[in-house]
TrEMBL record:
Native organism: Brassica oleracea var. oleracea
Domain of life, source organism: Eukaryota
Protein name stated in the entry: phospholipase D
Stored Pfam families: PLDc
A GO cellular-component term linked to this record: plasma membrane
EC number: 3.1.4.4
Catalytic EC class: hydrolase
Catalysed reactions, as listed in the record: a 1,2-diacyl-sn-glycero-3-phosphocholine + H2O = a 1,2-diacyl-sn-glycero-3-phosphate + choline + H(+)
A GO MF label: phospholipase D activity
Boundaries of every PLD phosphodiesterase domain copy: 55-82
Length: 161
């Protein structure tokens, strides 16, 4: 957690700029806890639930779009070490390989056709998860895109209250 969030904490930007993902569910009423043997096992989460009236959302992605040029699908180990090619790793197809051994990673093998397919895949993900597409979603790192998504999430959260 510290390694993941310490770069975010060092940002000089206002919190809404980098906190664009949040729980959009409204606060729920506290349920009556049934006394049973599992209650003491989950006591930490029960106490957090009673305090916050919601559970943490855990996202486990199995796909990654890199530089709008290629897509990694199916590997839970899509991380910096795998992408950097520093060590041998098992790619999405189950082949043991290194960075130079993967032709799909090499920029000479990326065609206009594959870029169009990756762009189409990215835009279909935007449409699926946000319910809309537009020019502001072409560059996800652009502040307009980040702000549009953050404002949409906050509007949805406020409408549930």
């Amino acid at each position: 957690m510290f390694m993941s969030y310490s770069p975010i904490c060092r940002l000089s930007a206002p919190p809404p700029l980098f906190k664009s993902v949040c729980c959009v569910s409204g606060r729920l009423g506290v349920p009556a806890v049934v006394e049973s043997s599992w209650v003491w096992i989950c006591s930490y989460w029960i106490l957090r639930y009673r305090k916050l009236q919601r559970f943490m959302i855990y996202v486990h992605a199995k796909g990654m779009i890199v530089d709008d040029e290629y897509v990694l699908m199916g590997s839970a180990n899509t991380n910096q070490r795998s992408v950097a090619g520093i060590e041998r790793y098992r790619n999405s197809n189950g082949q043991d390989t290194t960075w130079p051994g993967l032709p799909s990673y090499h920029h000479h093998h990326i065609t206009i056709s594959s870029k169009v397919k990756v762009y189409g895949y990215k835009m279909s993900l935007w449409a699926e998860h946000l319910g809309k597409t537009g020019d502001e979603f072409v560059d996800p790192a652009d502040l307009e895109c980040v702000n549009e998504i953050a404002e949409g999430i906050l509007r949805a959260a406020r409408s549930l209250d």
